[in-house]
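Re: beginner question about structure tokens

> Can someone show what the tokenized structure looks like for a real chain? I only ever see the sequence side.

Sure, here's an example I had lying around. Input first:
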Amino acid sequence: MKATKDEISGVVLSKLLPRKGDVLVDVGCGSGSFASFIAPYVGKVITVEVDPVAAEACRGAVASVPGVELISGDAMEVLEGEEYDLVFFGGTQGIESMLPIALAKARKIVVNAARMEVAQECIRIMREEECFDEALVVNISKSYDLAGGTAFRSLNPVFMVISCCTE
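And the corresponding structure tokens:
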């Protein structure tokens, strides 16, 4: 199951600039790692996961985290029906139809994409909606022991696409 690494979560946090009372929607919450990470910085996290196996894993991970609500189902319904300030797309399945809805309601959005083509599509949509801020390629390498010394192993890069504030 995919988990957002703490280092990536830190960059997302710095780009979202949450306020203590904000409601954040975590689309494609997977393991629940990002929801657990960001919960102390916002008023409420609504996690959404369409995969029932991942949703159960997330449920266990966030059960003891205050202010986190899990919705197992369609993110489109949540984005259309809920009130929120921020959106984090950790999963990008169906993002082409969800992103315009989120852009119309959220103050700030961060999309993490594993594939460059998905990031390009998000940039195109944000530009079309006149709210593209920036795109990043985030590369993290972690240390490990090698022959009595320290070497580094690269993690897969993350393409991060950020919308500008609508305030």
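Each token stands for a local structural state, so reading them left to right follows the chain. Helices lie at 6-16, 33-38, 52-62, 75-81, 95-105, 116-128.
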